[in-house]
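Backbones bend. To wit:
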Amino acid sequence: MHKPIRKITTVSALGALMLPLSIAHAQSNPADIDALQRQLQALQAQINELKAQQQQTQQSVSTVEQSVQESEVDRSAIKKIIETVRPVEIYGVARLSLDYGDSDVSNDEENNGMGLTEGDVGLSANTTIIGLRGAHDFEWNGTQYAALWQLEQNFNPGQDQGGDTLSNRDTFLGLKTPVGTFRAGLMDTPFKRMGIAYSAFTTTVGDPHAILGAGPNPAYGRLDLRATNSLMWDGTIGDSVTYSLQYGLDQNRGSYGEESGQVLNGTEDLIDDNSSDMYSASLSWNTGGLNLGAAYVNYSKLYSEQSIEAYRFGANYTFGAAKIGAIYENINEYDPMDRDAYGAFATYRVAPRTTAGVQWMHANETENGSDDDADQASIGVFHALTEALMVHAMYTKTMNGDNAQYRTADYAHGDRVNTTPGGDPQALSVGAQYKW
């Protein structure tokens, strides 16, 4: 790379040695002076040419070195991008239970097609799910962000469900920022999440949502739902306060009656119907073993032209091996479900891997109803065989007023046990769950 420099040095040295000899010879022979000048001019031209070649070579070397450096920078950037893409996580939980259910009906009233049983045993999948999720961390203007995605599906390992649905649970695209996490998609409402957080035995036959978010007749619907076409913002204030805000552009459940009697079809694959929107919010405060929470939800129209709104307050406290909690709920504006409900639970770790608990829920009479109140009582024990595998046994009973027919084994439990007005359905269950 530096040979031209050595060549110029050699030529210059020879010229320096030959110059005195040439001058001496020229002085003794003036006729050769012109020839000597021509030789010096030729030598100078050769030196200039070699200098030009040297400069060109140095420029080429600089260009190559710059290209190498840029290539190394590009490779470094690519490597950094690859390192910030988190591996796709496959997660899930398989839940199965063997249940004995009794709807408190006579032999003539039994109708298994409507969930009315005089006493049968069934295999139930209790919110068995599988999901995929991932994230991509990146920096923009010196601030760290993360792009998030999730796809989650509920399935029943005991049945052939068919169909092509692959995202019937929380599925979204989101962005984690310094001011919170923003997501868009299908997601549980903050109202629903708060009810789960401040109660016990969800996904078993003793699920409290047989009362919470429900009306005295299953035909009236329920409020613990996922919001479709929704936008969510989750954030924190300090170290102890968390909040969630959600807006659903369209909650048309498929059909509902208008005052004119017209039945509207769902707006799937069509522009969203904002006249059936919803919004929900929650706020929680956590310090030490004490947790306090509140939540609100409002549907412009869900099951009828009437709007529905509801709010909840909850508290739980963990001390040592014990945990206690309570929740209050009010639903109004929608006449069939216009009522208060409340309840409490207590659990105790009786052994390092074994926890026992009890829970009670109560629904008052509706504002325009009569004797349509109900109580639910549940008792259960859970034992962790490993960190991932747990088994349980649970008994629950719902006691209805004469005009109420709240179910048992409702909501997140796979096989519901219905009843007739005034019936007292009950269920006994043993089951297991495995998380991965």
Q: What stands out?
A: The chain is about 20% helix and 40% strand. The first strand starts at residue 89 and ends at 102. The chain has two domains: 3-79, 94-435. The mean pLDDT is 84.
